[in-house]
């Protein structure tokens, strides 16, 4: 998976919003340490969560499975625009050869599938992918063909979420009880945040050095 | 698919809420014609959509595909509790025989899959299902095995939604451009509504006699 | 202030929703102790907050000030239908006499105003109320007259809120740092909950025996 | 009232999100006419309203009445940080002289009050303001004193709202049946939008040349 931060609101804007309550705009240091401390104090410590909603982030998330998408979409205080299987299965239809050769090179299948590193599961995903490719070549409409799509199929989305909702997401999804792929996503989302915003989310993460190290590989 | 209405707020409560604005509670006829007319006038005609939010419906939806679930979950002003593949794949693991016999009887596979009525697609779904069953019997954890699940796999959910959000759902999803299965769901949801609530949603539906007739079969 | 619970979803429905995830409906005891324990475990302890959203409550809240309404409306995951000053100021216009007699009986003014028990503030509220009454008798339209309304003016609303959002409300608004009137409201809302639902909210309240005792008087 | 746009998401980001669905990013003209047409087609014409949620605007709104704030806060898909009467009444306490002299100059009172241009209403607002000032000088706590505040009292807020919710706001609040002050706000918000974003909102406004002309004066 690949995460790209497309845009975000500045800390300065969030601090300005908070300073509205006390009319203390003249104390701002334009997103500097004083503003940062204020945001952490009011938004996190005092639990005035609504002040964190002024911070919006838009991420482009590529190469997650549709299995993960099922979980991601449950976070409803966020806006998702997702690659549509109804409109984009042509990508697979246009593949003219078997996606996996006899030499067991799964590079081409990996373009379409998230692998689990369990050989049996991945093999079954590839078989399902091949079957789907064949069906598409029979000119069966996408709205029918997509029913035999394996949930490992890769998708992409543009995701806009505010800091309050993102804190909730990171807390729940970095947990050791979360599905491995959404857990990986949560750390990668965190890593894609602007450096000076990370302090707002740091303590929401369930840290796990071995797990994070694997993500880097 | 099967839709069961588990509970709903009464029209009387919604009318009471509206009458709060004008303090005209004494004019209520306890959910009768006068209250019904008021709700339609204020909620629909005058576009005071928030008054319709007092009406909540909880449905138990059984036997839709996870392909449909992907779309359903995008309606974010609603609450979903969904059958979890992480916790319930045991149902499939416990099947000890091939789900489809040589005699092409797909009854047992139909317990797990939504069929599209396209023989080729359904065949591929069944193959993927069989592969998943075999994987589970190898004691591969659900969190890995679920990646080769076909999106035709059946799921169930309890869905709570208010009348305002449901109007939006029915308008978008009964459209002829909607995915066939969610379109069918939208008509079945409408049919499961209490009779005296249907008038609030009637005009949001894109009617299609042939399509609705097929749903009854 | 007076709080009336108009309707609520049953615990049984919430437990049914939760049991959807594990398909364990057969273990339900129809809203009994087993179901109650499950809701507390999944909704509170496991932080699957969305399961608590199936529980909706509709309250009729009478006699709070518009000062309090300003704060109440910030809780945005809730539906409000509020007595409209644009439509209902006629109630005051129809009063033909001074609302406070020379004998300092403020009973009639209390029909329209929330008193703070600070004599000076209450006196100024009454003066503002009298001035508003005079203005209305000059046939000045409500949309202009309402601008000199004191924030102590009483209002009423029908409020629908789910258990997740209500937990957040009670936690923030029963705090000792909350405005005294919304603090009183939070305890009264809690008291108006069905007895068998209170356990879900108990630990969100900042208890204060002296304060609660005063509410009873 | 004064409206300042503090920040907004670019059309380019919104178009990028939409192009995710069709994977047509290569057709973007970086927020140019092609992207603008796409946003209008998908977001407005096709009613895929969620795509407009990627566009967020943060406004600083100064000098509206608390009467208007009561209505503004009902638009719940938005984030508000409001000047707090609990924390900022000191501004009034620090005024050492009567705010209105015998010569009927209301300039100083206008710093604190929204005037309606009805002399009687404005006079009563000023009287209430004076009474509040006197109370504050008696060292009565803000949490009590604020109860006699007239609703004409000026407030300020930082308001973050997405394009979908803003369309709803402008449609409802530019209507001729809306309160005059929120109607004025809706046109001023529209005017404060970036020029190249206005086309998304244009048709939601109930135009009224005379009314808009007055706003300019």
Walk me through the structure.
Four copies of one chain form a homotetramer. Chain A has 217 residues and is an alpha+beta fold. The first copy, chain A, is elongated, with a radius of gyration of 21 Å. Helices cover 46% and strands 14% of the residues of chain A. Chain A folds into two domains: 2-81 and 155-216, Gyrase A, domain 2; 84-153, no CATH class. Chain A has a four-stranded antiparallel beta sheet with strand order 1-2-4-3. The longest helix of chain A has 19 residues, at 119-137. The first copy, chain A, has helices spanning 11-22, 33-45, 66-72, 85-88, 90-93, 107-110, 119-137, 142-145, 163-173, 180-192, 209-216, and strands spanning 2-8, 56-65, 79-82, 154-162. In chain A, helix 1 packs across helix 2 (33-45). Chain A contains eleven helices and four strands. The A-B interface holds A 65-67, 69-70, 73-74, 76-78, 80, 85-86, 114, 116, 118, 120-122, 124-125, 127-128, 131-132, 135, 138, 140, 143-152, 179-180 and B 65-67, 69-70, 73-74, 76-78, 80, 85-86, 114, 116, 118, 120-122, 124-125, 127-128, 131-132, 135, 138, 140, 143-152, 179-180.
In terms of topology, how is this protein built?
The structure is a homotetramer of 217-residue chains.
Chain A: E1 2-8, H1 11-22, H2 33-45, E2 56-65, H3 66-72, E3 79-82, H4 85-88, H5 90-93, H6 107-110, H7 119-137, H8 142-145, E4 154-162, H9 163-173, H10 180-192, H11 209-216
Antiparallel strand pairs in A: 1-2, 2-4, 3-4
